[in-house]
Amino acid sequence: MTLLAQHDVALAPFTTFGVPAQARRLVHVSDEAALAALLDDDAFRHGPRLVLGGGSNVLFTRDFPGTVARIELKGIAVIDDQPDTVQVRVAAGEIWHDFVRSALARGWFGLENLSLIPGTVGASPVQNIGAYGTEAGERIVQVDAVEIATGTLHHFDHAGCRFGYRDSVFKREWKDRLIITAVHFRLDRHASPRTGYGDISRELDAAGIVTPTPLDVSDAVCRIRAAKLPDPARLGNAGSFFKNPVVTQATADRLHAAHPGLVSYPHGAGLVKLAAGWLIDHAGLKGLVRGQAAVHDRQALVLVNRGGASGEEVLALARHVQQTVRDRYDVEIEPEPIIL
């Protein structure tokens, strides 16, 4: 198959930030034949390249000088069906939220707390997406990926993915060397909703739901996210722009003494996760506008494109937020999106 590539293509429609940038070449990979052709393409294998899913975790600050490959592979297949669990193989191009809701409709539980997260399934293991007390890595049993240089198909089991907080082997040793083609999940047949996270329990209480189903939890998460986070179709953004920083217990104790209202969570032996949104908000940055970029006025973790912002404007604002938090708390906060 001949690889069909478009040239000098605007990337704003393929990202949730919607900042102006162009790709020298853009390729849509929607089936195995297109994938094989891509792997045979010298310009992709040896030149500048970017594998793009839903574009919800990337900020372009310039034009991309090489090939952008959009992975649009589709399909959901049951691999192993047991009385208590089901293992499903989900193609990388499936929309994450659509898969979560489809799983609930089929009686497959465990991902409901991750409802309404933007992006595709193929991106979920890369940064081990998480929200409201759940991480995708808890349910991922295998990731299928093809090595760009050799065309070799690799199967990473759960241990091989080396999941951490917003982290995995795909962000480290295998960064830019693979195309993820599918993700395998093991989900429950019997409902055991996680409702202990504060926002979820409050939302369920407000709705008068005493014995919530997984669908109730998913609906609650959707309402919470819709209330807090801007719709990228109306206000360009990449969701939470900063990771919650993880610090030592001693550092957390120091900060709590100086800032008694600081929100934090235990994060393993001797470590504490701080709420980056709280740090940004209480540094006086919520709602800050710089040019056409801004810190969202309802959720300080989110940077937004107010309309016509450049990637450079968003990045300059992000750096200002980082420096302000560093100066006030002596804590480093890291961006979540890939910045190009």
Question: What would your notes on this structure say?
Answer:
It is a single chain. A hairpin with a 3-residue loop joins strand 6 and strand 7 (85-91). The longest helix is centred in the C-terminal third of the chain and has 19 residues, at 311-329. The chain is α+β, with helices and mostly antiparallel strands. Helices cover 26% and strands 28% of the residues. It has helices at residues 32-39, 42-46, 96-105, 158-161, 198-206, 214-228, 249-258, 276-282, 311-329, and strands at 5-10, 22-29, 49-52, 58-59, 64-71, 76-81, 85-91, 130-131, 134-135, 140-147, 153-157, 178-188, 236-240, 246-248, 264-266, 271-274, 289-290, 293-295, 302-305, 338-339. The protein has 3 domains: 5-71, Uridine Diphospho-n-acetylenolpyruvylglucosamine Reductase, domain 2, CATH 3.30.43.10; 76-188, Uridine Diphospho-n-acetylenolpyruvylglucosamine Reductase, domain 3; 236-339, Uridine Diphospho-n-acetylenolpyruvylglucosamine Reductase, domain 1 (Alpha-Beta Complex), CATH 3.90.78.10. A 5-stranded antiparallel β-sheet has the order 6-7-12-10-11. Strands 1-2-5-3 form a 4-stranded mixed β-sheet. The chain is built from 9 helices and 20 strands. InterPro entries: FAD-bd_PCMH, FAD-bd_PCMH-like_sf, FAD-bd_PCMH_sub1, FAD-bd_PCMH_sub2, MurB, MurB_C, MurB_C_sf, Oxid_FAD_bind_N. It is found in: Cytoplasm. The active site is at residues 166, 240, 336. Pathway: Cell wall biogenesis; peptidoglycan biosynthesis. This is UDP-N-acetylenolpyruvoylglucosamine reductase.
Relative helix content: 25-40%
Structural class: alpha+beta
What's the total number of strands? Answer: 20
Q: In CATH terms, what is the fold-level topology of the largest domain?
A: Uridine Diphospho-n-acetylenolpyruvylglucosamine Reductase, domain 3
The second-level CATH architecture of the largest domain is: 2-Layer Sandwich
Low-confidence spans: none
Largest sheet: 5 strands, antiparallel
Give the averaged pLDDT, no decimals: 93
Instruction: Give the overall shape, derived from the CA principal axes.
Output: globular
**CATH C-level category of the largest domain:** Alpha Beta
Oligomerization state: single chain
**Total separate domains:** 3
Q: What's the order of the H and E elements? A: EEHHEEEEEHEEEEHEHHEEHEEHEEEHE
Distance between the termini: 30 Å
Strand neighbour order, sheet with most strands:
6-7-12-10-11
Q: Kindly estimate the percentage of residues that lie in beta strands according to DSSP.
A: 25-35%
Helix count, DSSP H or I runs of 4 or more residues: 9
Nearest-angstrom radius of gyration? 20 Å
Protein name: UDP-N-acetylenolpyruvoylglucosamine reductase
EC number: 1.3.1.98
Domain FAD-binding PCMH-type: 19-190
Catalytic activity: UDP-N-acetyl-alpha-D-muramate + NADP(+) = UDP-N-acetyl-3-O-(1-carboxyvinyl)-alpha-D-glucosamine + NADPH + H(+)
